[in-house]
Amino acid sequence: MVLVKANKVLSIIIPTINEAERLPLLLADINFYPHQFELIISDCKSSDLTELIAMIGGAKIIKNDTKSRGFQLHNGASKASGEWLLFLHADSRLENCWGWKVAQIINKEFNKAYAWFFDFKIEKTGFSWFLLELAVFIRSSIFQKPYGDQGLLISKELYFEIGGYKNIPIMEDIDISIRLSKKTKLKRIGSKLITSSRKYIRSNIFTNAIKNASLINRWKKGEQPTNLAKKYYSNQKS
Questions:
Q1: What spatial distance separates the first Cα and last Cα of the chain, rounded to whole Å?
Q2: How many domains does the chain have?
Q3: Fewer CB under 10 Å: which end of the chain, C or N?
Q4: The predicted structure's pLDDT at residue 202
């Protein structure tokens, strides 16, 4: 495989709250990116070793008092120096080919007109997990609705043009996808982003999907995100 020479600096932004267990694995994947990049950890009062791990990994650490992933993501983007931004969840893993795929995209000027996402892959195997992956593929590729656990690659120019992530306690990824889909096309990067099964493992994945769909519908009808966040996180604990 011939690596593409990247002439654009990539800023990678990861929001964290107590991610010391998962973060080192993601940082190891990121460090295989063969070109210049900036790593930003946008942390919210972690009480474990998250900040130390980020420092060892060479990250710029941004401390936030507001417990909101949307706020953390936007705060990180506001302080990024790269021409392109890549948003990732801390419990994700990247495929070996990810850097080559991303470099191909950011080196072509016309790709700045689009937003880009990874294919969803769960860390577990089995038929029910395959069905979940298939459903996400249909939702994101056909209906242009990728979620946060698929990452987001976007030029800084386009990100701020559409207003970036909003400071809301939940649905920040759906909100930005909707605004992006009204402005441009969301395209596949062509590489998988492997996500943790921890938010699915405590309950039946189909029951969990129905509950999440209900919350999204209520949000679209105008229910306050703070109320939905309480419901969502109570589901995660049950």
A1: 46
A2: 2
A3: N
A4: 60
Least Cα distance to 94 among 145, 150, 167, 141 occurs for: 150
Domain enclosing residue 147, as ranges: 10-199
Q: Which tokens sit at 26?
A: 């993601």
CB-CB contact of 148 with 212 (8 Å): no
Across 175-194, b (16+ Cβ under 10 Å) vs e yields bbbeebeeebebbebbbbbb
Q: Looking up tokens 């994101």, which residue turns up? A: 140
Assess if residue 1 is contained within a domain: no
Q: In this structure, what is the dihedral angle of CA atoms 67, 68, 74, 79, given to the nearest 10 degrees?
A: 10
Record the pTM: 0.90
Mean pLDDT estimate for the chain: 89
> What phi and psi values does residue 237 have, to the nearest 5 degrees?
-85, -20
Q: Is residue 53 part of a domain?
A: yes
- Please count the helices (runs of H) and the strands (runs of E) in the chain: 10, 8
CA-CA-CA-CA dihedral for 213, 215, 221, 227, to nearest 10: -170
- CB count, 10 Å around CB of 143? 11
User: Comparing C-alpha atoms, which of 21, 16, 27, 150 is closest to residue 71?
Assistant: 16
Structural tokens at position 12: 């990678």
Quick one: DSSP state of residue 86? E
